[in-house]
Design goal:
Elements (H helix, E strand, L loop, with lengths): L14 H20 L77 E10 L6 E2 L4 E5 L21 E5 L5 E7 L10 E7 L2 H5 L4 E8 L2 H8 L5 H8 L19 E5 L3 E9 L1
Parallel strand pairs: 1-9
Antiparallel strand pairs: 1-2, 1-5, 3-4, 3-6, 6-7, 8-9
């Protein structure tokens, strides 16, 4: 095995069957919204209701929906599927490109990426940052492999880390752009905890979701060395057909700036 995952969706996020319970709940919420029972308005980066809000809707706590719940997939590393990296010393870090506390000590290579997740209080209408919360992020490397689980990188734990949110509700991670493997749109997994103590004890997850990347950014990154297989996989996909983002991604599509030469920055507001 070469460390890459190309066998199919079941090798990564267990395919549609694994995601159906989560997707069914999301579709039910959308049906209720159509009947005027549940608002589905997202938030902009500055915390205001997005352009999708009805023109006559007044700003209120009900105008901010929580981040959609998604599957953590089979490779969370949070103790729910085997190994638990959250209880290891060194997991609280901003630079997640290197492995820590293990003999392998590998470094993930790829186009530089800074990820900033801003956690806000949905009940406040997205206007109040959640200071002192914690975010755990994890994603595949440029070959489509997940540390701790995939062949060739089971002794690595790179591209995983926890950060406590600051006074602006922000948790920032230095990483590399993830690859695209068969069956899934390019993404980053994350879990939100009420506190850093909860995160490092692997308890009381408040939200589990995923961040998606814009297609044009993916195409630019995958034209660079090391991402060759991602080109083929991306061409066979669309975000509309993705098992997670296909039924709605307005709140999960990251705002991305930068370039291949200088690196990219991805940001997302996460109402909880």
């Amino acid at each position: 095995m070469n460390g890459r995952h190309d066998e199919g969706p079941h090798e990564h996020d267990r395919g549609l069957a694994h995601d159906l319970p989560v997707l069914a709940r999301r579709r039910m919420i959308r049906l209720m919204a159509g009947a005027g029972l549940v608002p589905l308005v997202g938030c902009t980066a500055d915390g205001k209701p997005s352009a999708s809000a009805p023109p006559s809707a007044p700003p209120s706590a009900s105008a901010c929906a929580e981040i959609p719940e998604e599957t953590a997939g089979p490779f969370p590393g949070d103790g729910s599927n085997g190994v638990n990296v959250l209880k290891e010393s060194g997991v609280v870090r901003s630079d997640i490109t290197r492995s820590f506390g293990r003999s392998a000590g590998g470094t993930a290579r790829g186009v530089p990426l800074t990820v900033t997740l801003t956690v806000v209080d949905a009940a406040s209408g997205c206007g109040t940052p959640k200071r002192g919360a914690a975010v755990y992020v994890w994603h595949c490397d440029r070959a489509g492999a997940y540390s701790l689980y995939s062949d060739g990188v089971t002794e690595e734990n790179y591209l995983r880390g926890v950060q406590e949110t600051d006074e602006r509700g922000r948790a920032t991670f230095t990483s590399v752009f993830p690859g695209c493997y068969q069956g899934r749109w390019p993404h980053i997994h994350f879990e939100v905890f009420g506190s850093l103590a909860d995160a490092t004890a692997a308890r009381s997850i408040t939200n589990t979701s995923q961040l998606a990347f814009p297609e044009d950014v993916c195409e630019a990154v995958y034209a660079t060395e090391g991402y060759e297989r991602s080109v083929t996989h991306l061409r066979s996909l669309s975000i509309e057909s993705d098992g997670v983002f296909g039924d709605g991604r307005d709140q999960q599509l990251a705002t991305v700036t930068g370039s291949v030469d200088e690196g990219f920055g991805a940001s997302l507001t996460v109402p909880v």
